[in-house]
Write a structure and sequence with these properties.
The protein is of the alpha+beta class. It folds into three domains: 108 residues, no CATH class; 67 residues, no CATH class; 203 residues, no CATH class. Helices cover 47% and strands 11% of the residues. It is built from 18 helices and nine strands. It is elongated, with a radius of gyration of 29 Å. This is DUF2851 family protein. Pfam families: DUF2851 (PF11013). It comes from Maribellus luteus.
Amino acid sequence: MNTPFNMPEEFLQYIWENRLFESENIETCSGEALEIIHQGKRNTDSGPDFFNARIKLGDTVWAGNIEIHVKASDWNKHLHQNDKAYDNVVLHVVETYDTEIARTNGETIPTLVLTYPEYLRNNYQSLLDAKTWIACENRFHRIDPILLQLGFNRLMIGRLESKTEAILARLQLNNNDWNETFYQVLARSFGFKVNAVPFELLARSLPASLLAKHKNNLFQLEALLFGNSGLLNNQLLGDDYYLKLRKEYSFLYKKYELKAIESHLWKFLRLRPVNFPPVRISQLAALFHRSESLFSNIIEMESLSELYTLFRVKASEYWDTHYNFNKASKSQQAKELGETSIQVLIINVVIPFLFVYGEKQNKNHLKNRALEFLEQLPPEVNSIVAKWAELGIKARSAFETQALLQLKNNYCETKKCLNCQVGVKLVSERE
């Protein structure tokens, strides 16, 4: 019998699912001969851990479900003794047997104390105890990179599905208005993390349907966006451009009964001047000036070049010599949205929307297009991708960098090693 140790239940489920336990000449805690004919199929929803298992107790074959716990008393702790959903459990599998358990009608359920090779426990414990960047960093060199790359597709789909959930939640709040939802997510991404929240608040305070009414007038679009950003409230006097924006916004403010967000929400510290909020807001205005129905246009685009052309917008002429209001810069430079910034918008906004819209509208060609775009885009440059490269995993496309981000953030950070192909390989590896 294995010595009790502080392991999560998922480890025992992994042992059971992969039949890594000792199965010869085993018996239940009551001394009855037991044979595991089939361990069942893993259940990822509520209810018993494994469905449709087949076991032989003495001379009788039983078909039903398997429930796994660290301690037998966890059955009662989780109130399964009062839940009819667990009445079809034919075997209770545990690490430690500390009590007898029963169904809702009082019938005793046979219990098996799981035994398995010591090295499996040691391998998994070493991953849990690791303090390195990823749990398997010191053993990662043993893994063939191809093993990891084989899982990229599953990781990428998982990342898109997580983004899908966020989009669908926002879509519901917007009464299934795709254009409005796309605009809000796009605006948030224009904040590039540091100013994501104020950009989102700005979009929610100024609907896309209202901006569409002024689509043909760039100055009015800027007045609306700058005015509702609160950035026109910081001073009463300024240069001609600033004062004209204030005057125009004053009229539109009264016409539409607008409410600006607080200007203190915007962050300027430790940002490159080209990323200052006023420059980004002017670029967003230019994008609306170029295309009224952004989302409708984007789902019709079949190539990345079309998307680059759409997003290659620049701030209005005033910003050629400014990074903030009323403060002229020494240099003169057109503030065009750069290629890297465009790629970020495509990866974080366009592609997830193509995927979720294709899913909801049953248009698989849009889902495929989203994945094709990711494969065509160059790999992202960030600290996580760079660290993976140090470990020998050099991404060849945005598809692979997104998969690596998903692996690090959703598996490695939470040490879900038993859900990772690399982790499973290392746990099952004999020293």
